[in-house]
């Protein structure tokens, strides 16, 4: 998924940018803020060779620009050994809002920082308390001497470069007790994160995946919005059901439509997916009962019997011997007798003529 970084329009009105930076400085600073290696925490690893390649500069020019921004502008720090760069005031513009998704991302990226003094340096410029506390929790106090040494030499030496021999010596002098303390702190941090954020990370990942595949590419602002929804409604299955409903109804603004659905469900005292499922089952059962009541099984084909056929037996019973039938009744026996007499006469006539 593509990454996005904020560059505020006030960048071009900043007195330091307008009065102190050359055109090349502005170009370089924008590169430091938006290049592909940037992270959410304002500390990332990049080499001079990569900077030179991306900007089309020589290695010497890239090194000179880094030195200028460290010593003259004092806007960055760069560790020559770990190849890590830190941007001052990054948190002021990029970490001014908290929330679970942001904090989880910050924690995962802070774990990868090798020079922890950079964490403290960037953390000072963060105004959001919840994010700043996370930065402070990842600052390793065992590097205090390392930090003081670099700060004392900042005015006369490179503000972002460090004596690598001193760093190695300090690392070699760490006692076993300090190492155990560090491991214990790391384990406690991981345990607390495991209890608090593993489920939220997986839940948030489900929301991002569904939104990314069915609604819209998840930009940082959308991801942050989804994080707020998750913090508010907690149940990821209920939120997914609302998003699915928005997709099914082809809403114009599907995320806003889903929020409206969640608000309506909350008014109906539905705050979990189980409650929603139970409601849907009740509605299905009610519809099924209404359908069964309105449906009647056909009784089969009904024949209409003519009146004369229904009364035929009555007419036959009413004819007693010796009574004459009415004009509409045919005497089959009399007709038969007449036919036999005619046949006999015709036979006798034929014999007489023959």
Biggest sheet strand line-up:
1-3-2
What general form does the structure show? Answer: rod-shaped
Distance between the termini: 123 Å
Residue stretches low in confidence (pLDDT < 50, at least 5 long) are 141-167, 191-198
Element order, helices and strands? Answer: HHEHHEEHHHHHHHHHHHHHH
Radius of gyration: 47 Å
Number of helices: 18
Largest sheet: 3 strands, antiparallel
Q: Work out the strand percent.
A: under 5%
Annotation, overall tally of beta strands: 3
In helices, the fraction of residues equals 55-70%
What would you note in describing this structure?
The protein is mostly helical and 354 residues long. It contains 18 helices and three strands. Helix 6 (100-110) runs parallel beside helix 8 (129-137) and helix 7 packs antiparallel against helix 8 (129-137). The longest helix has 39 residues, at 176-214. Residues 141-167 and 191-198 have low confidence and may be disordered.
Give the topology, please:
Blueprint: H1 15-20, H2 23-34, E1 43-45, H3 48-55, H4 59-71, E2 76-79, E3 84-87, H5 90-94, H6 100-110, H7 116-123, H8 129-137, H9 144-152, H10 164-172, H11 176-214, H12 220-233, H13 236-248, H14 254-267, H15 273-294, H16 307-310, H17 312-318, H18 332-353
Antiparallel strand pairs: 1-3, 2-3
Helix pairs in contact: 3-4, 6-8, 7-8, 11-12, 11-13, 13-14
């Amino acid at each position: 998924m593509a990454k996005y970084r904020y560059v505020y329009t006030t960048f071009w009105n900043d007195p330091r940018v307008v009065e102190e930076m050359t055109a090349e400085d502005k170009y370089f600073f924008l590169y430091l803020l938006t290049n592909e290696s940037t992270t959410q925490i304002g500390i990332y690893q990049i080499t001079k060779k990569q900077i030179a390649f991306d900007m089309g500069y020589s290695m010497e020019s890239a090194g000179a620009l880094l030195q200028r921004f460290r010593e003259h502008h004092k806007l960055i720090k760069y560790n020559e050994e770990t190849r890590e760069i830190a941007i001052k005031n990054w948190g002021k513009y990029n970490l001014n809002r908290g929330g679970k998704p942001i904090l989880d991302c910050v924690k995962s990226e802070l774990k990868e920082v090798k020079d922890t003094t950079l964490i403290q340096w960037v953390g000072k410029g963060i105004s959001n308390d919840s994010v700043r506390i996370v930065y402070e929790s990842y600052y390793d106090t065992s590097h205090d001497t390392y930090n003081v040494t670099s700060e004392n030499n900042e005015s006369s030496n490179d503000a972002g470069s460090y004596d690598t021999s001193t760093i190695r010596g300090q690392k070699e002098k760490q006692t076993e007790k300090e190492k155990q303390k560090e491991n214990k702190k790391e384990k406690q941090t991981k345990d607390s994160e495991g209890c608090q954020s593993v489920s939220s990370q997986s839940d948030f990942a489900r929301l991002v995946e569904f939104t990314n595949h069915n609604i819209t590419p998840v930009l940082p602002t959308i991801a942050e919005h989804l994080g707020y929804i998750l913090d508010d409604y907690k149940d990821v299955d209920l939120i997914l059901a609302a998003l699915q409903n928005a997709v099914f109804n082809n809403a114009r603004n599907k995320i806003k439509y889903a929020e409206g659905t969640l608000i309506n469900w909350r008014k109906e005292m539905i705050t979990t997916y189980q409650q929603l499922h139970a409601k849907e089952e009740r509605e299905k059962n009610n519809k099924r009962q209404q359908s069964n009541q309105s449906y009647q099984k056909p009784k089969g084909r009904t024949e209409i019997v003519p009146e004369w056929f229904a009364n035929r037996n009555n007419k036959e019973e009413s004819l007693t011997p010796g009574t004459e039938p009415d004009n509409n009744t045919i005497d089959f026996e009399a007709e038969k007798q007449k036919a036999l007499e005619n046949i006999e006469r015709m036979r006798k006539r034929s014999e007489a003529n023959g």
